[in-house]
Amino acid sequence: MKMQMHFYPEESNVSAYGIHHVTIFCGDARQNVDFYTDVLGLRFVKKTVNFDDPEVYHFYYGDEGGRPGSIITFFPSEKAPGELGAGQAMETSYRVPAKAIDYWARRLAEKGVRADPIERRFGEAVLPFRDADGVRLALVGVHGAETEPAFAGADVPQDCALRGFHGVSLLQHDAASTATILSDVLGFIPVAFEGPVTRFQVNHTAYGGVIDIHVDRNASEGRLGPGSIHHVAFRAADDGQQAEMARKLSETHSLTVTQQLNRNYFRSIYFTEPGGVRFEIATDEPGFAVDEPASELGRNLKLPPWLEARRLTIEAVLPVID
Description:
By secondary structure, this protein is α+β, with helices and mostly antiparallel strands. The chain has a single domain (about 5-315), classed as 2,3-Dihydroxybiphenyl 1,2-Dioxygenase, domain 1, CATH 3.10.180. About 15% of the residues lie in helices and about 35% in strands. The protein has helices at about 30-40, 100-110, 175-185, 240-250, 310-315; strands spanning about 5, 20-25, 45-50, 55-60, 70-75, 90-95, 115, 120, 125-130, 135-140, 165-170, 190-195, 195-200, 210-215, 230-235, 260, 265-270, 280-285. Strands 1, 6, 7, 8, 9, 10, 11, 12, 13 and 14 form a 10-stranded mixed β-sheet that branches. An 8-stranded mixed β-sheet has the order 3-4-5-2-15-18-17-16. The longest helix is centred in the C-terminal third of the chain and has 13 residues, at about 240-250.
């Protein structure tokens, strides 16, 4: 049965920028690096540690400069594999030129990657697939994306390379409470629905401008672990905009928001939105070149100043990643 599509006329007056990054649990660290650099052709932007658990790596992959909206990050974990459920982010999608979808279908098949047939979502060609840990990913063929900047790593041709995030989908029992936060605080407006999926969009950004809420009232609770998304981070231009978002979350929506935390490459606040998904708001500044030249991003283990005194101890417990 053909799914219904409807477009909404509303506009938002909230100044927001879309998705900053997505953070996910993975299993084997070396396997993770190989997949996202050698198969997807992303740049290894930063090799650091989980600042809250510094004996665990934190990997960042993205475009050449690690621009917000292109960054996917991973915490290697020895937990049991994650299980998708309501109140979790379920899929991360990337923009590629529309004509590159067939190239990627062939490439993933050649690399032995688990991929589904190309399908249509909201009028666009979509290629869903998973990495070795079961992380749900998709490539979305976007007309005009060929004019956007891209980093072509490995042997991926420049005209087929990933351009940055298309968006993230959330699995929820109900869309209403999450929709309020997306619209009132984060600047996303509802633009269409297709069956059980409602699409929200920030209209003034290409990278990371889409959030899809997939409603399944019968979905069971999930479990975090390798293969599951830990949190979705949204952009704030600076501390002032972030503080205003935090004020609105607390005063208008009665949500508990953390104090600002220094993540070295951005400054962050965290909260759990009403549907159960962990959200972060991260500043665009200062960026990933704050502690190493842009030409050398990802080559060496970088630690924040407050962990440098523990470098030898930390390096001794981390697996070697070339």
